[in-house]
Amino acid sequence: MPGPASRLFELVAILVAVASIPLALLVWNRVRGPVALRAVQRVLVLLVCQVAAVAAVFAGVNQANRFYVTWDELFGTADLGAATIVPGAAAAAPQPAQAPNTAAPATPTTAAPTVAAVPFTGDGSGLVSAQVTGARSGVNGQILVWTPPGYTATGDPLPVLLALDGSPGDPIDTFNGLQLVAKASELIATGAMKPTLIVSATTNVGGKDWGCSDAPADGPKVATWLTQDVPAVISASFHVLAVSAQRWQVMGYSSGASCAVRLAVTTPALFSAAASLAGANVPDARVLSGSAQARKDNDLRTLVAAGTDRPVALLLAASKQDAATTSDAVQLQKAVGPQVSADLELLTRGGHNWDTWQAMTSPALSWLAQHTNG
């Protein structure tokens, strides 16, 4: 039987949707029985047409994006199996200088601007949040934080993991969708991961995807927000390790995965490692891909090939059934330049959806725990 992401299923769904309309007209005046029964039959005819139309739209969108590759995935019964980590080879030789990005990231800095502590409020879920306007970027966004069990302002300072949502998305989606609290808590309890402060912050400013970049002209400075304002607020408000003692780590899913790699290789003074869960090499954000030159300049292969001035490690997670992201991950691993390393995390099964990203999360967190210094 063809899968929900197959061309055959898409074709059949479209043909059924198209055929349902003349069939509905054909039977409309042929229903029999009392008035009430005829009304029920006609409602059922309309429902069949509606279901057929919805199925056709789903088939087209799913075929293009491969959200669900198998029927088991669609109905929540799929066993995605265990992830396999494939270490990368040594970085390539130094590359020629790259063209500047059309939407450049924030200037790397280890010195966070001085800001006062921000009051964070809890909602009973174990997370605390604050609405903040960045001192340098001017971006007004949410910062959502999870503190591990036993955290105190006088205990050992904690390392920091920045987690990025996709588009559309909000910071809470990263925690809920990836089950970050449960998975991090389990790894911390077993000693596979040190107690870590996990932070998620607004990336889709104004509801738009900016590719975690500083947009030109009057666009929002999202890179400055994420790499300067958010670290400044976290450093002032929580007991965390100074970046000079241990750099942050960053992970994301879908478009947030591309952001994670982009921020790590363009701001190595802040980030030592990035985990990309099903990311693409060419960003979706219009500001980074509005022209052929912009797509080339902001392609992750271009950015990693330029190398970094200190070690940065990348984990590129993909599912073999989500063929586009697997291809991108393999190509990106081959493109790394000086002081950049890249490992692959491969799942045999799974589409571009939450179940797949959840299956990638624990191995990614474990991998990050082993790559604190790039």
Shape: elongated
**At the fourth CATH level, what is the homologous superfamily of the largest domain?**
Alpha/Beta hydrolase fold, catalytic domain
CATH architecture classification name of the largest domain: 3-Layer(aba) Sandwich
SSE sequence, one letter per element: HHHEEEEEHHEHEHEHHHEHEH
What composes the largest sheet?
Answer: 10 strands, mixed
Seen as an oligomer or otherwise, the chain set is single chain
- Integer tally of domains: 2
- What is CATH's topology name of the largest domain? Rossmann fold
Please work out how many helical segments DSSP would assign. 12
* Total beta strand runs: 10
Rg over C-alpha atoms, rounded to the nearest angstrom:
24 Å
Specify the CATH class of the largest domain.
Answer: Alpha Beta
Task: Report the average pLDDT across residues.
Answer: 85
Spatial strand arrangement across the major sheet: 1-10-9-8-7-5-6-4-3-2
Give a verbal description of the structure.
The protein is of the alpha/beta class. It folds into two domains: 7-65; 84-369, 3-Layer(aba) Sandwich (Rossmann fold), CATH 3.40.50.1820. The chain is 40% helix and 16% strand. The protein has helices at residues 7-28, 35-65, 71-74, 171-178, 180-190, 222-237, 255-266, 286-289, 292-298, 300-305, 323-335, 354-369, and strands at 84-86, 121-122, 127-133, 140-146, 160-164, 197-201, 248-253, 271-277, 312-319, 340-347. It has a ten-stranded mixed sheet with strand order 1-10-9-8-7-5-6-4-3-2, sandwiched between helices. Helix 11 (323-335) links the parallel strand 9 and strand 10. The longest helix has 31 residues, at 35-65. Residues 90-112 have low confidence and may be disordered.
